[in-house]
Amino acid sequence: MHIKKIEIKNWLGIKELFFAPGKFNKVSGDSGSGKTSLVEALEKVFTNKNRRTEVVRHDQEEAELFVELDDGLQTLRKVRTEKADYLKVKHESMAVNSTEAFLRRLINGDIFRPIEFVQKTAKEQTEIILNMLQIEWSVDDIKAWFGEVPEADYQLHILQILKQIETVYYAERESINREINLLRANIEGIKRDLPANYNGVEWKEVNLQELYKKLSNAEESNKRLQEAQALIEGLSIRIKDIQQRSANASMEKKLDYQRQRDSFNDTIKRLEENMQQEQAKIDDVDRRILETNSRLDNELEQAIERLKLQYQAKKQTAREDIHQEVEQSRVFIAEYKEQVAEKKSSLMNIDEHERKDLEKIADHETNLIASENEKSGNAQQVIDTIVWADPEPLKQAADEAASMKEYLREWERMNDIIREKLTPKEERSAELTSKIKTARELPMELLKTASLPVEGLSVDEQGRIRIDGTLIDGLSEGEALGFAFKLAKAQAGPLKVICVDGWQNLGSRQREIIETSKQDDYQYFVLETVDGQDLNLEVVEG
Question: Cβ–Cβ contacts within 10 Å for residue 435, how many?
Fold first, then answer.
């Protein structure tokens, strides 16, 4: 169902307007030219609500708004300054009753404007979305939730009913808590006459004879422990000295072997470098011979013929010298290889020598410690098995127990008050607290089960709106706009009208919206601000 015809007279910034809209309509013009007036006129026709106090054009007494739909429904609304407004709704083939309610149903209560929605706060957006939700419930549900049917006005919305129930339970809990506070004050008065943190159960179970027996046993154990400690004190000092000397010897050995390793590694490195140098001479022999031959050939060409034999002799000598130097390098390399092998063999053996020396030091340390332990007999065993016990706390505990038993009668009287009076009231208060918590948490639970208008929309335990898991105020600008259009389509009633403000600010989104409109059955009115332009209405074919 779409709008077929719009006629407006003397409404806000519009003196007179006649427009036959299509599926996608652009309303453009400068600020104040009447773009928003057109949308507000449509809202007025179907909702009878004004966004402004004065809507009739200045110096006029009446504004006239007429809308005809493509199914034949015609609506004429006259807004008057001096007398009651006028509304007439007629249809070519059906009777229309309860006209205001009928008109509101056409747009599901309101014309949803996605850009306006995006510009609202997260709290305002949440309230709009929650108002779209329908929640099913019954009195049996109330009884199941609270174990009873509390006093409330069950004609209200379920969220309002739960708030009333919460208030009733809260008032009862306040009354009981006042009585609890009086009982606690009485108990505190008794507590002030008792020692701090007095525990009668503990003192009733205390056995004075057992405490004094523990004191005697502790004194005997302490005596044996002192004798053993005196015997073992010298042993500990001697063992520490042995361990320190052994540690020093091990460190010396490690340093000595590390120096040897460093020396071998340096020698190996130097020899390998010498080998590389000599090998370079060998590898370069052909180039050097070629270079020498070339040089001597040049000299030979410039010399006279009689010296040719002399230069041939020189070349032969040079070749022999170079080959002799190469042979010498090969000898050096062989010698270096023998030396490297010898050093590597020594380096491999040094780890084994070091291990054996360190084992000898450790064995020597173990033998010395064992010898010292044998000298000390079983004194260490006594020290390991007996823990020193301070007899003074045991004596104080026995004296304190005797004193504390004198307060048992008052303590028992205090517990009678707690058991017979305070505890039942606290249990009822806790029960009420649980019911109050239920009344507070149920709205969020019910909202989770409500039919949601858009796929991906959810309500978390704090009543916040999420889109595909993201809080509504955490959406990007593009995501927020896309969601607003989905919500607009879900909210639209039989009259599938979508109004878009600020068309000029949507950039590349304009083409996307136009292309989307070709695939759906909604009618679009987009408002574009153009500086210096009068109000202009056109049907966009895409």
Answer: 22
